[in-house]
Here is the input.
Amino acid sequence: MTVARTICQGFIVVIAIGTILLMLPISMSSGNWSHPVTALFTATSAVCVTGLSVVNVGEYYSFWGQLFLLLLVQVGAFGYMTATTILLLLLGHKFGLREKVALQQSLEQVGLAGVEGLIRSILATTIVLELTGILLLLLVFVPIYGFQEGLWHSIFHSVNAFNNAGFSLYSDSLVQFVKSPLVNFVISGLIIFGGLGYQVIMEMFLWLKKRLQGEQPCHIFSLHFKVVTNTTILMLILGLIAFFIAEFNNPNTLESLNIQEKLIAAWFQSVTTRTAGFNTIDIDNLTDAGLFFTIALMFIGASPGSTGGGIKTTTFSILFNSTKAALQGRNEVLCYQRKIPMIVIIKAIGIVFASTILVGFATTVIAFTDQQLELTQIFFEVVSAFATVGLSKGVTSNFTIPGQLVLIATMYIGRVGVLLLISTVFSEQKPSAIEYPEENLFV
Here is the structure.
């Protein structure tokens, strides 16, 4: 049982448990049993922190169903190995070498040292940021719904925002709050921190701590930190500009808003495409340009080690710098004056190629099973499912059962990772002493 197989099977077990819980009459607002495929789809979407749903979770599920959904989102965001480890820590279990190696591989750590401390830091970071979001959202929801219901709305949306899940208790997501600066900036802030990854957050925290204490004014950030933060900022700014220009005169999205509100709405749309799934404007009425930018940003997604999906910002940065090296005629790929190992470049190429094949295959299959839908609608939903975004053109509930099953598989593969899933099938390659001859090839 390799680490990859443990992770993949662990997600399946959690999804199966979630499906059973969401099928129970206690989880339904109607008090009846839920349809198995509907429960499976929702549980998969929650565990894979996607946010796509074939039902309105605010009306379809009771409080207990919504609570089960929230717990599945939290477990799925942690990841199977991390969630299991946190549970063992709470029970006072001591780690052996096997557990440390499994965690080291699942968290993509360089060494075994500090793995337990990282898990505790992940738990603490999650609690602090989600609690901060809850307290700020109380200022919005309590005046509208009262304390008890307002508290639940704050908890539900804060947890979903930080974990980049995108489930909302409203049928129109957050469209009714498009003019609320507090909701827009709190939700978008949680989405950004959740999409950066725990290691980046901890490095940022340590830098800030040293600056405040005056211990180390000259701090050297890791290459991972530089790539993640700079690529994220670049994508957010480009997305803001693109959506502001593309939707400025669209009467169904931004035209009725003033300049300040348009900027806030465009900013939120730029942030939420990074695998979050919330929306404050009608996705179905986006212009073709806005739709294209949404799909592109969704496919890139968030960063490694985060609660988001997609091919990841680091993969995009590696391919960008590889293209730059090819255009400049260099035989090595540099990034911030550091040489990228060939194995990392090969992995990035493999991720993009396999992800493209997966999206194309899923779109083709659904085009056969759901011929009543337009190809653009199918392609948008498939990319949203693969990148675990959750944005929808409002047609998810119109998918047939075979189409829903394809989306379920796409969400699962997008969450565990294409290469990780493939590695569960093929055994690890043993080192070979054979070196094959090199020959040129025209490209």
Q: What stands out?
A: The chain is about 65% helix and 0% strand. The mean pLDDT is 88. The first helix runs from residue 3 to 23.
